[in-house]
């Protein structure tokens, strides 16, 4: 009887213990609390472990019954702890993910260091405007043969650009004398030799001349333009440059003037002036009655078309070329061309562009 009574008591005990532990496990808010419960019940000195240690004092029958009951309880509690641990781990992961997710509604923040160089920026602006007029970007090599830089462009041997004083000559390669290109115009030749009209390209890039003063450096940049089609005429040339210059400088009524001029590779040729004011010390662009020369252009010379295998009786077109530093200086008020290439970080911080501030000239009312 005594055994039976003890067994009854014990099972009541165990029920109470189980309820208490199960409630504690269900309420555990984190893994640390759960660990405390595990140690308190199943650890070396845990309550269930201690109860197991007392089995030896029981009669064999009572020990068997009590031992089985304790084992069941131990397993139930261990399972409950494991299940709760899984739930807590999942919840922790969900919370972590919610915290770590990227908020794509935030605008990108520019790096505090680093600026876009005004030359890169100006080239981007030029490309953007001409791209909106259907032009592609073409490229050519910096090292050219004399043929591409001069001959094919109808530049006679007596032309001043051929002088040792103004051109960097390089050792000949085979029969061809090589030069650092003095202009981007040879890209016209590469383009016309490699593809059929209609052609509509611009070619921004580096050019080289033996020069060094406030408005010249031995390396500088130009952009060339070329349009070849069956019915292209001077009116297209004028409209195209008018649209470009007004969009680039962001002045909707910027006056443009075409003055007759001479280039060996165009006929007729013109120089283009834009309206400005020189009153006081400051140069201001706009409709003020004064003029500033800005670029050269003309209708592509029939000899140049012939040199590239294009029939001048069927095709014609226009070309233009301008200095990128020059228009960047005018637009952004940079007084000395040499400073573009001095790699002075203070200068770049002043005149350079943060990627986020970059103006988009194609969006202006040109
Ligand atoms: N290549 C000329 C220069 O460097 C600029 C130029 C003038 C380019 C007239 C042209 C053009 O394509 O038609 O001074």
Report the CATH architecture of the largest domain: 2-Layer Sandwich
Count of all domains: 2
Discrete helix count: 11
Order of helices and strands: HHHHHEEHEEHEEHEEEEHEHH
Core attributes:
366 residues, disordered N terminus, eight-stranded mixed beta sheet, alpha+beta, 11 helices, 21% strand, BirA Bifunctional Protein, domain 2, binds 3,4-dihydroxyphenylalanine, three-stranded antiparallel beta sheet, single chain
Structure summary:
The chain is of the alpha+beta class and 366 residues long.
Describe this structure in words.
The protein is α+β, with helices and mostly antiparallel strands. The chain has two domains: 98 residues; 236 residues, 2-Layer Sandwich (BirA Bifunctional Protein, domain 2). It is 42% helix and 21% strand. It contains eleven helices and eleven strands. Helix 2 packs antiparallel against helix 4 and helix 5 packs across helix 10. The structure holds 3,4-dihydroxyphenylalanine (DAH). The site of 3,4-dihydroxyphenylalanine has 11 residues, from strand 10 and strand 11.
Strand and helix map with partners:
Layout (H helix, E strand, L loop, with lengths): L1 H26 L3 H12 L4 H7 L6 H41 L17 H15 L3 E2 L5 E3 H4 L19 E5 L2 E5 L5 H9 L4 E10 L10 E11 L4 H16 L6 E8 L2 E12 L6 E2 L4 E11 L1 H6 L8 E8 H9 L12 H7 L15
Parallel strand pairs: 1-5
Antiparallel strand pairs: 2-4, 3-4, 5-6, 6-11, 7-8, 8-9, 8-10, 10-11
Helix pairs in contact: 1-4, 2-4, 5-10
Bound molecules: 3,4-dihydroxyphenylalanine (DAH).
3,4-dihydroxyphenylalanine binds next to strand 10 and strand 11.
């Amino acid at each position: 009887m005594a055994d039976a009574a003890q067994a009854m008591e014990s099972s009541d005990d165990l029920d109470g213990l189980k309820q208490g532990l199960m409630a504690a496990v269900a309420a555990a808010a984190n893994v640390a609390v759960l660990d405390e419960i595990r140690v308190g019940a199943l650890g070396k000195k845990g309550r269930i472990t201690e109860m197991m240690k007392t089995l030896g004092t029981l009669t064999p029958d009572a020990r068997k019954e009590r031992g089985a009951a304790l084992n069941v309880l131990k397993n139930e509690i261990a399972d409950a702890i494991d299940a709760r641990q899984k739930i807590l781990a999942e919840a922790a992961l969900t919370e972590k993910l919610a915290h770590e997710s990227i908020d794509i509604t935030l605008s990108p923040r520019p790096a505090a260091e680093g600026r876009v160089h005004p030359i890169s920026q100006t080239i981007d602006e030029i490309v953007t405007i001409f791209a909106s007029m259907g032009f592609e970007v073409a490229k050519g090599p910096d090292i050219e043969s004399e043929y591409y830089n001069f001959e094919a462009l109808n530049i006679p041997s007596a032309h001043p650009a051929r002088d040792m004083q103004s051109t960097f000559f390089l050792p000949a390669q085979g029969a061809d004398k090589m030069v650092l290109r003095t202009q981007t115009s040879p890209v016209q030749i590469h383009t016309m030799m490699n593809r059929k009209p209609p052609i509509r390209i611009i070619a921004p890039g580096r050019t080289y001349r033996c020069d060094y003063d406030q408005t010249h450096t031995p390396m500088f940049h130009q952009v060339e333009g070329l349009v070849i089609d069956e019915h292209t005429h001077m009116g297209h040339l004028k409209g195209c440059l008018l649209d470009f210059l007004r969009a680039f400088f962001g002045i909707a009524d910027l006056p443009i003037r075409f003055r007759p001029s001479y280039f060996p590779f165009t006929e007729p040729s013109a120089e283009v002036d834009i309206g400005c004011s020189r009153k006081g010390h400051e140069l201001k662009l706009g409709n003020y009655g004064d003029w500033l020369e800005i670029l050269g252009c003309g209708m592509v010379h029939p000899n140049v078309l012939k040199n590239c295998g294009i029939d001048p009786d069927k095709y014609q077109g226009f070309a233009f070329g301008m200095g990128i530093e020059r228009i960047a200086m005018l637009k952004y008020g940079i007084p000395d061309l040499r400073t573009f290439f001095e790699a002075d970080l203070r200068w770049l911080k002043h005149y350079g562009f943060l990627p986020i501030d970059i103006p988009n000239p194609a969006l202006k009312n040109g």
